[in-house]
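The aim of this short unit is practical: by the end, you should be able to scan a pair of folded records and say something sensible about each. We start with the first protein, listed as its amino acid sequence and then its structure tokens.
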Amino acid sequence: MKLATLNDGSRDGRLVVVSRDGKRATEAGPFAPTLQAALDNWVESEPKLRARFDALDSGRVAGTPVDVTRL
């Protein structure tokens, strides 16, 4: 599972899930808006993030192209 933070001007940035090939990303979801939120509640957020990663990586979620200048 790959995670990244987008610089959105906030202190912590916005958490996204990145495809295995690093070419697409999708929002982590309301359960983990930031990496800190995911870590603070890892037991609950990890399975949801992993499911989101699997959906993105398999193509069930389209995702958007990754702009590495925003990571």
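Turning to the second protein, read its sequence before its tokens, just as you did above.
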Amino acid sequence: MTTPAEGIAALERAFGSVPRPTNEELLHPRCADDSDLKGLYAFERWRDVPDAVIEREYAALAFLSAAGYRCFLPAYLRFALRHSHGGAAAVDSTVWSLLPEMYEGDLIEFARSKYELLTRAERDAIGVALEALAADGHPDAAKALASWRSSGGSPHVPR
């Protein structure tokens, strides 16, 4: 059984030196409103994002570009692993960002578009984090893990 500490360690190793896109590059090209991202603008590294910002900007993952998602997803996963039973909306929104099948139509491909820049090591670390969340009892983490494993963390999954 994977522990939250193992999930965090995997994220640290895989996402340690991910480049930070400019603030202008954080918003997904298909989105027009960056109001859910503004709290992230002040942070150059995902490790520096405080819990209070993640809680307040819980919807940010839905609006981030692939580069922004790659940069900030580990902060959200780390938060989820440390606070899985606290009832914060950021925990669920993080898991749901890794479960595109919960959406319909074009939103499935939109959600998957965020995975395009993830490396194999980063995809594997996300799988470890999801394993830990599932082992810790998050209700949707097991579904997200199954989806992640079946797709190999790929943005393009045959239907």
